[in-house]
Amino acid sequence: MTSEIPESRSDPSARLAALTSWDADWTGLRVVVTGLGLSGFAAADTLADLGAHVVVVDGQESPEHRAKADTLLIVGVQDVLLGERHTAVLPDVGGLAPELVVTSPGWRPDQPLLAAAAAAGVPIWGDVELAWRVRERAGRKTADWLVVTGTNGKTTTVGMVESMLLAAGQRAIACGNVGTPILDAIRDPEGWDTIAVELSSFQLHWTHHIEPAASAVLNLAEDHVDWHGSFEAYCADKAKIYEHTRLACLFNEEQPMTMRMVEEADVQEGCRAISFTTDTPGRSMLGVVDGLLVDRAFLADRANQALELGELQDLGPIAPQHQVANALAAAGLVRAIGVPPEAVRDGLRAYRPGDHRIQLVAQADDVLWINDSKATNPHAADASLAAFTDVVWIAGGLPKGVSYDELVTRHVGRLRAVVLIGADPGELAGALRRHAPDIPVLSTAVRDTGTGPSDGHQAMVAAVREANAVARPGDVVLMAPAAASMDQFESYADRGNAFIDAVARLMEAKGLGS
Fold it and tell me: Cβ distance 398 to 483 under 8 Å?
């Protein structure tokens, strides 16, 4: 062993190839970590714990970032470089060129520092790649990974997976692109039986080799084209989730592109292709029969039988089609590792969806007020709109380079009126003029006073007021923006909370407040 260490250190690629567990020799590895958000902080903290020499770079110099930097310096990070000037060049580590860059998922491949690393032949990993490399550690459980991606529904699905695993008596956690950073989960002292990992297209871009027990692509639609450069590149990164899967690749029967991804993936011997559908399932599928969620994939006599996994009513008072699909995908992932049907049912009953996802906010005068601020792109808004019949739609925001023509065309028949929010709703307004010229389009009172959270909250109050003026009994006022929130709000949660607060004010004005 002692003779091998100097040889591997003389060949950086050989050394990196050997780093496949926590107990490998990470000592002195020169690493640049880009980004000081949740995943970047966790990566830097982990690498320092492993004994690597770490320099962190982030463009922001806020008090919060300086506090994080101070913490990292205390735990052994060599340097933290804050400010835009540091993001343009690849820094040295201890006076020598770095051997590895670990990047936060939001950093684009054409970002100057990352482009410089690529040009210099320095490998670039994401936090998920690093987590896979350190998942095995002496004295701790090594968890199975159940991994999920898709344009929409990822957070809901991994939450359902976690709930089903807990109902089966497993020690499990949902992590990754939601809640707990994956490296924080990996470092848990006790370890896990199974982890449910939400993976964004950004994270998958920087992931090179994982071997999940089961994997799923929920759906695909145009999104983040500005980051990836094209829809084809976006899909190619999503498809990486299926590579090297051990037991089952779950795909959406109603989206053939996801099936083609499985067909083209290099999976392990014996891995099965399993689909889910919100219709009647065939063999090796999960689906719906007479209001029941059923499994015709993970049982011996799947040609003639189906296992009941639960009922549609187990999903709660509002169970739109896309939520049913998410539940079936989650069920398929856990069934792949042997979770019994009753745990699927109990997990669905115990699961509570997060806020801002088709969240019923109020019901008054026979009008439902629904918050789906998580609908940050047209595909998510499409699912929301499809769940209701007569809709006063509050929409708009940062469009991220996508088109709204297909969305408006699909749902023009259910729109009663549209209330536009967002600093520049021109793309959506144009689609409405072209494809829904007879639908009233209302603009909020706050538009041209600049951007930022305060303007957004004022705009939402105005939007709710205008929606209330046109809503009739039987209508649904649906806030599903089909756009990102950062033009007027701090986040989609901030936008959703603004809607909740504005509706609460309206209910109080009507004498219906608590």
Answer: yes
> How would you write the pLDDT of the chain (514 residues) with one tens digit per residue?
333 334 445 577 889 999 999 999 999 999 999 999 999 999 999 999 999 999 999 999 999 999 999 999 999 999 999 999 999 999 999 999 999 999 999 899 999 999 999 999 999 999 999 999 999 999 999 999 999 999 888 999 999 999 999 999 999 999 998 779 999 999 999 999 999 999 999 999 999 999 999 999 999 987 666 777 788 999 999 999 999 999 999 999 999 999 999 999 999 999 999 999 999 999 999 999 999 999 999 999 999 999 999 999 999 877 888 899 999 999 999 999 999 999 999 999 999 877 787 888 999 999 999 999 989 989 889 988 988 999 999 999 988 778 999 999 999 999 999 999 988 888 999 999 999 999 999 986 555 444 444 578 999 999 999 999 999 999 999 999 999 888 889 899 999 999 999 999 999 998 775 4
SS3 letters across 188-228: CCCCCCEEEEECCHHHHHCCCCCCCCEEEECCCCCCCHHHH
Binding residues for ATP: 150-156
* Alpha-carbon distances of 462 from 42, 84, 387, 446, 455, rounded to whole Å: 40, 37, 25, 7, 11
Three-state DSSP class for 6? helix
Chain-centroid distance of CA 372 in Å reads: 15
What type of residue sits at position 232?
Answer: E
pTM of the full structure: 0.80
Map tokens 């919100």 to a residue.
Answer: 278
| DSSP secondary structure letters along 264-305 | HS-PPTTPEEEEE-SS---TTEEEEETTEEEESSSSTTTTT-
Burial of 97 (0-12, 13-18, 19+ CB in 10 A): middle
